[in-house]
Design goal:
193 residues; alpha+beta; two-stranded antiparallel sheet; two-stranded antiparallel ribbon
Length: 193
């Protein structure tokens, strides 16, 4: 059994639609005994599942609204037409993590390991807060307009509903195998990559 919860914001209260899935961790077997779920497979494939969910969200936004995309510096995707300064303004949590990681790496004289990155994310994470949607929207518009990004500029980022093109099945292989593809910066890749 899985319960899914749609969240609209990051912990820094920036727009960040994402889904949390809570998986029941015990089951009752045929004999009526409670058994714990072996969740190792879920964790092993969590990055791949996240990548698929993100791709599905991008697909739906393109299909339903005509959103266009551009490659982001961090390897993900950003909505085409939203300037970098606006993206930075609405990435306060990511900026906090980046600043804390830079401070750590300067202190230890090397890049942070994955466990250290997770530790930084956890220890810098603010408590959850609830803010009414109308207050969030008013703050988001105020911050966006301070960067010259208004409703008209947002509207220019969508072209209206569209039927998706047939996928080019050779394009993913070409992109992955290219000199700047997935192996350019990674010596080992997994399903999530």
């Amino acid at each position: 059994t899985v319960a899914s919860f749609l969240h609209q914001t990051s912990r820094a209260l920036d727009p960040f639609p994402h889904v949390h899935n809570v998986v029941a961790n015990t089951v009752e077997d045929h004999g009526g005994e409670r058994r714990a779920l072996d969740a190792r497979g879920l964790y092993r494939h969590a990055r791949a599942a996240s990548a698929l969910a993100t791709a599905e969200m991008r697909y739906q936004l393109t299909r339903l609204l005509g959103v266009r995309w551009r490659r982001a510096g961090h390897g993900g995707w950003e909505i085409a037409g939203i300037p970098d300064d606006v993206l930075r303004e609405f990435s306060r949590r990511g900026n906090e993590i980046d600043d804390a990681l830079q401070e750590l790496e300067e202190a230890i004289g090397r890049g942070a390991r994955p466990d250290e990155i997770d530790h930084v994310k956890t220890t810098t994470r603010p408590n959850k807060t609830h803010v009414p949607l109308e207050d969030l929207l008013a703050d988001w518009w105020r911050r966006a307009e301070a960067h010259g990004f208004d409703g008209a500029r947002l509207a220019s980022c969508v072209a209206g509903p569209s039927e998706p093109l047939e996928p080019d099945v050779d394009a993913p292989y070409a992109a992955l195998a290219a000199p700047d593809g997935i192996c350019a910066n990674l010596s080992v890749v997994d399903r999530g990559d």
